[in-house]
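Escalated from tier 1: magnesium ion holo job.
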Amino acid sequence: MVGREREQSVLSELVAAAGGQALVLRGDAGVGKSALLDHVDGLAAGEEHRVIRAAGVEAESELPFGGLHQFLYPLLSSIDRLDDGHRKVFDVVFGRGEGSPPSVMPLGIAVLELSSLVASQKPLLLVLDDGGQWFDTSSTEVCGFVGRRLTGSAVNLVVTLRSGLPSGFDTAALPELAVPTLSGAASGQLLDRHHPELDSRIRGLILEAAQGNPLALLELPSYARGNRTGHTPEALFGYAGIPLPQRLQQVYGTRIKALSDEVRAVLLHGALDGVGAGAATGPTGGARYRMTGAHEAVRPGGWAARRTSPVTPAC
Ligand SMILES: Nc1ncnc2c1ncn2[C@@H]1O[C@H](COP(=O)(O)OP(=O)(O)OP(=O)(O)O)[C@@H](O)[C@H]1O
Ligand SMILES: [Mg+2]
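Tier 2 regenerated the structure:
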């Protein structure tokens, strides 16, 4: 990563600290929130901590406890070590028992018990990517409750939220770290690392258009080159008033149009399933659609020509 010394040092402290802590990373689309989660995930794994990841998924946004289930499922075997009272609270969440859904407080307490039990063997890091828009309300409330009570435990919780999108975490009173755009120097470094071929005019235009957004710095150069899409740099930079997210939407829209029908079908399936949010190896991983054969879409900045390519979707 480039230019994230401050954020990396906050995350290192969080992993190294003896007591548990919650932290919300908030920033614009593409600014690098998930990249920071990958970083903290790696730090924690390096310290032999157990890491469980969950993600807000559109398909499950109306499913009470769907998000929480992503965190709890890997801990299923430890639930039987809880006392009866706490164990029963989980029965509804796991569909193992009848009854009305537990309210936030008993479920939150049971989650604290369970996570502390697991963390007594090795520290636990719970990582929630995109906890805003698509993470179901019940799970958000429980995670907020838990996040406010981690002090003294060996459990950490890190959540990412997109700026400008309302979320139940907005009122959860968890400590926040804003993820700003990259500085000019860091932007230049990132651009030169990934696109050393740019001439100075285009380089300057891209730095200006990207406004320190890493995703834009990585994606705009291929668009600006326009070699296979017919777009010229002027097409990209001719609309000064267009906000960056819309520009990126346009960039991706053009890129998706250039893909083969088969690959677009894989992407659509993945988007509907939420697998693109990174939960493919999560609790329902076995039942989830796994995106394969979409390599031409994944290639950074790759502008695939429209052609038929072998696609091997696997369930
Ligand atoms: N500091 C950085 N150094 C190098 N690459 C970065 C950095 N930050 C982000 N990136 C890269 O930029 C791209 C966008 O980052 P990322 O996916 O983390 O953004 P995000 O904030 O999670 O966006 P979204 O809100 O859409 O989830 C990724 O390819 C990521 O690897
Ligand atoms: Mg992200």
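The domain at 5-178 is CATH 3.40.50.300 (Rossmann fold).
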